[in-house]
Each structure stands twice: as C-alpha cells, then as structure tokens.
Amino acid sequence: MRVRSLEFGQRAQEAVLDQQLQRNLQRIGVRFKVGRDMAFAALEDPEGLRNLGRAIKERSLANLPHLLETLEAKVKEAGGTVHWACNAKEACRIVCDLAKQRAVRTVVKGKSMVTEEIGLNQALEAEGIEVWETDLGEFIIQLAGEPPSHIIGPAVHKSKEQIAELFAEKLGSPKAQAPEELTKIAREKLREKFVKADMGITGANAAVAETGSIVLLENEGNIRLSVTAPRIHVALMGIEKVIPTLEDLAVILALLPRSATGQKLSSYTSIITGPRREAELDGPEEFHLILLDNGRSRILADPDRRQSLYCLRCGSCLNVCPVYRKVGGHSYGWVYSGPIGAVLTPQLVPARLARQLPFASTLCGACAEVCPVKIELPKLLLTMRQRLTEDPNFDGGIPLLVRLAARFHGWLLTHPRLYRLAMDGARAASRVLVRDGRWLWLPPPLSQWARNRHIPTPARPFSSTWPKLKKELVQGGEGA
Length: 480
Fold this sequence. Notes:
By secondary structure, this protein is an alpha/beta fold. 52% of the residues lie in helices and 11% in strands.
C-alpha cells in the first residue's frame, strides 16, 4: 500500500470539510467508546486486568526469540509449516509462491491489518489470483477501492446509504437501505467465493507458544469459513503477537473484545492448532504460518519505543482521539491511523514519509486512558517528535517560521519577567483585535499556525487574582 502520510495536512482539511464524513465519524465515539466503558465498568478490577495485560506483553517481548522458536517447533509438531519473512516483499513472495505452486485461482481472506501493511492483495492480483475480502467492512472498502479507515471498523466512515449506492454500482443489486438487506447481498456474493476458494488467508490476534496455536476473533463467522472451507490456510502475523501460554491468552481475551467492541467475548473465538487431522471432517489440508518482522525487531531494540509493540489492534485509542474523530482514518495516509498509527507508521515506513503524524495529536492523554495494555501513547508521541526535531538532517515537517516561533516561545518561558510583559501586551492587544472570542489579526507565523485552530484570549494570571481570592477565603473561614 502506497504511503501517503506526507499528505496528512491536505487530507485532514478535506476531511473536515466533508459533511457526510463528519456525520459518519460522530457515530464512532458513541458506538465504540460507550460500549467499551460499559464493558470495563462491569469488571471487578479493570485496572488490575489492564496491568496483567501489560505485564504479559512486557514479558513476551522480553523473551521474544525463545517464544518464537517454541511457537515454530509446536506448529511443526502439529503438522503445520512456519515461514519467516524479514519484510513485506518477502512475505508477499512466500504467499504468492505457495499459491502458484498449488495452482490456487481464488483466495478468500479474513480481516487482517498485517496483510494490508504488506499489500498482499495487490501482490496476489498481480499474479492473476482472485482475492476476496470476506469481512463485511473489508468487502465494502474492497469494492470501493479504498484502504481501511479504522482498525476494527474498516468501513465505519461510510453511511448505509453510501454502501447501498456502492453495492448497486459494483454488484448490480437493488438500492437496499436496511443493514440486514445489505448484509444479505454481501453474503450471497461471498458464498460462491467460499465454495470456489482454494486458499484462505487470515491474520492472527495472538499466537500461543506453548501449544503452537493461533487465535482469531470475529463476529461474522467469515473467518471460520475462510480457514475451514479452502484446502490451504495461510496465517500471517507480526512477530510481536506471540504470548507464552493459554493462561496468558485468557487475559488477552478478556481485554481485546471489551476494548474493541464492548463485548465480553467475540461471537466467534477460534484457536487453531495445525491443519486438519485424520479423524477430523473440517479444516484445511495444509496450514502455513508466516512470521513477519518488517521493522519490528528494530522497534524491539529501542527501549524508548518498544512498547509500541504491545498494541492489541483493538482500535480503542482511535475512538477517543479528538484528531481521529475529526479527520478520519484516511487522512493518516497508511494502514494504521489514530494515535497508534501516528506512533507505528513512522517506525514501520521510512520516517521521512510520515514525519507529520507524531505532531497530529493534542496530547490530551485520552488514548492512554483507554489502552487495554496501558501503552503510554502521549509519551511515545513526544519521543517521536523529539527525535524528528533533533535530527539535523530532518526538519520534522514543520515550517521554518513555526520552528523559530516555538524556539522563541521556549526561550520566553525561561524568562518570567519578559513572559509576563508579553502576556500583558497580548491581553492589551486582545481588547482591540478580538471580536466574539476570535482574533481578527495575528502576526506571522502565528497567523499561519492559527489558520485552523482556535486561539484563546489570554486570561489574567492566577497570581494576580490570588491575593483577593485568598483574602475572601480567610474572611469566609473567620465568619464560619
């Protein structure tokens, strides 16, 4: 998938002006965040559970080489095959070779962000292999020719009316409006693909080293069909998804659905260990697991950024992020969006291609409050910003005048008298230049920075009101 993160500013402005998109994005917070909050509120010790989840990820990454070797041995013991891929190109080549060697003509896929990351669909289609996304949201955006807009709701940016028009245009179906009718149209189309498919491709929400199992969560049943109907199952996962034991998995299963959709447990939870055995009626003849690095070992080696790999891909940080909820996922220009996308993208692609993303955050901290494994996203964003701005060969994507203004502001904050004098001047200017709470004019480069921001009027410092307030409090206490 082409990286278009450098276009973040332009795409964000277009998104803000798209009224239909704004209406669709408003629903995200209501639907996902409220569900997540209710699900965690019902727990006896939600913080304890989140601490357990973080501890599992810390322990897993600290022992990653051992866990991956154990996972490989167990998968082979169960009759599966393990492939190692250093990067996206190698992972795509492995899948394409498997497909060509086995004369595969049609592939059905379960939802998988890692296959989006490596551009697998495009690679298979370049080999003349038909690929069908079977998750309803992925199916919709595949028809629309778009990338996912949200980690767990790829088509959440579209209304049902837009989907009805898309189905009518691409599938020749009547313009149904009810979600049930739209789902029926997609189901009928995909059913014939499940029957024809020779290969099913999925991601993995987790992999358990002690048993050699991969774990898949879903609500539609399409993943179960994708792994049982075709004769070959290929699963791709980032190396950071491995955890030690089934006991650890129980914690992850308690966190992930609650964080993603507000469910205690997904409608379908599949724990798959190897291909079909002799006595079994369902399942693939072959099972292949591809372990993808693609920059993850580099992140693992960096103690300041390692916790980026704790991510469970639940999408909860997107649902509470004021930036994501205003500009949507496509503005971020690559697979991962929202706060976690702003952290991961500059680490998984050349940083120069995603230099704006760490700055696309208010640092309000809402993302850290909902993260099921307590990733310190604001801290990571600040680390990313610091490294970008300190690189002498790299301007961080910030215009020169804005950088100079920031440096001047930093200098001013270290000189209290001058700072107070400047604030007094700004307050005096605001009496003339502010109308209805908005500045009529600002000097450059502040005017450029403020073009899409609300600049508050400087308030009187608390130190000037404190003596009077203190006097009132003292008098109130004496009166009592």
